[in-house]
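cache lookup: miss for this entity combination. No prior model stored, computing from scratch. Input as submitted by user K.M.:
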Amino acid sequence: MGLLPKHAHRRKKLGLIVMMVMGVGVAVGMVTMALKENINLFFSPSQVLAGEAPKDHTFRIGGMVRTGSVRRSNHNLEVAFEVTDTAKNLPVVFTGILPDLFREGQGIVAQGKLGPNGTFIASEVLAKHDENYMPPEAGEAIKNAQKIQATLKE
Amino acid sequence: MWLFFHKLGSPKYFYDLSGKFLPWFGGLTLILMLLGSYWGLVVAPADYQQGDSYRIIYIHVPAAWMSLFVYIVMASAGAIGLIWKMKMADVVASCSAPLGAAFTFLALVTGSLWGKPMWGTYWVWDARLTSELILLFLYLGFMGLEAAIDDKRTAANACAVLALVGVVNIPIIHYSVEWWNTLHQGSTVARVDKPAMDVNMLIPLLIMWFAFMFYYGTTLFMRARNEVLYRERDTAWVKEMVTE
Amino acid sequence: MTEFFHMGGYAFFVWTSYGLATIILIANVILPIQRKKEILNTLKRRLRREQS
């Protein structure tokens, strides 16, 4: 009397719900696995020089722009600089517009390929910023203090 | 305490009590929002590296914190509803989902708008950004599942299970910047030593965080009261209230 | 004042963020208010039907 179909309907719905919940569970599990496997966004210069980075396709490198290594071309947007993780340096060339935060000593992440001569040919350069926030005067003061400390060490 | 907990479970009691709190919560939200925005946009100094673009932080970070907090509330309420069959807990979970989704969406979009000028890209598939996007899908999944099931009881139970499974994602979001190499920087405020932020920049951030907390309280109450009104439509007290 | 709106050249990003936040936050206040009106109207109509 219309009761049975309703039950079947309910059972079907319950099955659907169980499947949905299981599906989401599997998805979350897979994402967690994927995150554990290879979620690191970039390779460090040391890793690249040790041959850990993929040879023939694009990957990302990350590190700091070595102070004093930035050379800009006079006639086009080409920039050459070295990325360092303080242990090893990797030369990088890039043609294009750099983000506002790009400067010497700044952390960056670049996407591209390793050229035949060991230079990293970047197709995209992203700047990483640090977790410190302070007014310009304070930043200046810290920079000066570090300079004084560096000269004292020498 | 147990008695209070029990009383809160009574829809009429909740409706009356939340009605008393609502104007205060709303007022506090408005005052804190205006104060925090003014302080963050006008009084706080520009950043030494990022200039004025960092002012997005006063929306982005509170929204991101709330996206996690609301999820924890939602999953806890879901669990309480699942175990003790408390109707009000289901209402809290169900009303939190769209608010959490809104906070997550806001955090993602403002982060994107901050990322473009500073990092040089609107989006990158790093661990922090990806896990936050998964959080948005969890909220949307919760809402979708709820809408797909007609029976309220079954819907609440299924959604609670979904929310509890998704809790895994919360520590992943928080620790993603420590566990993996990400483009997103590490924690500024939530760290073992003192926050890496000038006091004059930190105070408006905390004000905005309080503002977002009270905002959540306000909008959660508003939604929950509606839900109570609708669910209790056949009771004497609702009928009495409607005729007034 | 113009300097304030200029946001050191980041006007688009800063003001879009704050604008969007304002829209989303206000929308989430208006929606439950409308819903409440809707519910009360429906319940009133139902009650009137029952009484007549």
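stored under new cache key. The mean pLDDT of chain C is 92.
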